[in-house]
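Quick illustration for those who missed Monday's session on complexes.
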Amino acid sequence: MPLLPPASCNLKGDINTMEFSLNKEQLLIQKIAQEFAEKYLEPLADTIDRENKTPEEIMKGLAELDLFGLPFKEEYGGAEAGYDCYVLAMEQLGKVSSGPAIAISVNCLGLGAIDKFGTEEQKMKYMPKACKGEYMASFAFTEPVTGSDPKQITSTAVKKGNHYIINGTKRFITNANYPGPMVLFAADSESGKPTAFIVDKFCEGYSVSKPWEKIGYHGGELLDVYFKDVQVPSENILGKAGGGFPVLTYGIAFGKVGISSIALGGILACYEEAVKYAKEKTHRGEPIAKFQAIQLRIADLAMKYESCRWLTYRLGYLANDAKNQAVFAKEAALTKTFVCETFADAVRIAVDVHGSYGLMADYKVSRLYRDAIMGPQVEGVADMQKMIVAGIVLNS
Ligand SMILES: Cc1cc2nc3c(=O)[nH]c(=O)nc-3n(C[C@H](O)[C@H](O)[C@H](O)COP(=O)(O)OP(=O)(O)OC[C@H]3O[C@@H](n4cnc5c(N)ncnc54)[C@H](O)[C@@H]3O)c2cc1C
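Prediction with flavin-adenine dinucleotide bound:
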């Protein structure tokens, strides 16, 4: 049930032009993701939600479609389709089941940081397998004390010859239970500032907690990670020693492309579920869609989806050529906050259309409700994102 003809802006167009149609490649990738999501993911979506586990065959299927490394260059194992195609694919997955989409989004977040800040050797070593789904990348900043303030991190990296010895605890880390590279932030002993390291998960001294029981985003597991005297060679520093801050802010901005797209898919699902229910549910023999109050809610959902769609597609376009790090970080913060907060508003409306049925596990909107509350908190809480936006706006 497309909201409007399946169109979007020409995301690869010149920045000074304004074209609103998908090119062939974008349409193809959108269709591939949509077909996979509808054919394979949809029938399992409730099971994934209930069991909080994504079946291996789903992850394999997504990998076969090259969805793990969509934006990255072919020489690093990616599909080289750009972030414009990535948003279209992630929207389709997010519409059906958020968990597997989150796992891919965080994989691309870790890889995005390696792609932007890594040496040629680091890219060749870590990206190809993660782009093909044999590895899953992680990005580990949050600690028990903070997920917002880099100055407060307590994980340490003490230099010893050509190595660093890492100790600390990272909290709420996605994909921590899959092998692959982890971009990890720790204060190094020389600068005292956060430094980003690439750590091979499951190396000696690496261990994980059991998964957290979160209320939404089921299917993508979240664990704490313990580092006990983990030895990392100096060549695994990502960027420069003491230079973790730009890796964090710029790297995580690329993660927000994925989170925004998944939330966009959630808004589309809210719209579709509300329209379907409004036409099916009858009062006195007529569908509730005849009530003006229901019509206004449907219009609100359509407006919310359309506004978020263009903002998210635009972010994908900007991510393809994000040369100015501060400006891109602002655009990503702005988009992620608006789209995730709008998803939370939209799902409330969709539940209202359903009445009490919307509160029942049998109805998809109840799952969407639990997913929608996650977005404003992850990859930077909403208030901190607004502070990033205000900082750029007021200081330029
Ligand atoms: C599903 C899920 C997946 C996640 N995946 C990852 C992952 O892969 N890697 C990772 O590193 N983390 C991950 N996280 C953690 C998440 O990114 C952090 O929890 C989040 O950034 C917020 O950090 P916090 O919970 O410590 O909140 P805090 O930083 O403690 O913030 C709490 C409150 O205080 C406010 N606040 C904090 N500082 C300030 C300030 N200076 N001024 C004003 N207000 C302030 C915040 O706005 C917020 O309202 C994940 C979390 C979830 C739920």
